[in-house]
Amino acid sequence: MHLKILELEKNKVKMVLVRENHTFMNLLADEILKDPAVNVAKYLIEYQFSDPELLVTTDGSKDPITAIREACNRISRSCDELITQVSSV
């Protein structure tokens, strides 16, 4: 995955996630929104084959990049748990 940071402020980040689609972006935005410090987590895919743009804003108590990183770690742990459960079947 390749990222392009379009805008970075203390409580706001706007980035493009190259070659991602709705499946991952829905999961990521939903997981980011579970953080109480996050005000907005949404993405936009302007055209059918364009790269999605992610916008995350926080209340200032947490850096938006940290909120994204923590959400990705939670997603990864959930996937690891699923792999473990499926492997034991």
Automatic annotation (TrEMBL):
Reactions mediated catalytically: RNA(n) + a ribonucleoside 5'-triphosphate = RNA(n+1) + diphosphate
Entry EC number(s): 2.7.7.6
Chief place where the protein resides: cytoplasm
Annotated GO biological process: DNA-templated transcription
Top-level taxon of the source organism: Archaea
Cited NCBIfam families: PRK01146.2-3
UniProt similarity note: Belongs to the archaeal Rpo11/eukaryotic RPB11/RPC19 RNA polymerase subunit family.
UniProt-recorded name of the protein: DNA-directed RNA polymerase subunit Rpo11
Organism: Methanocalculus chunghsingensis
Annotated gene: rpo11
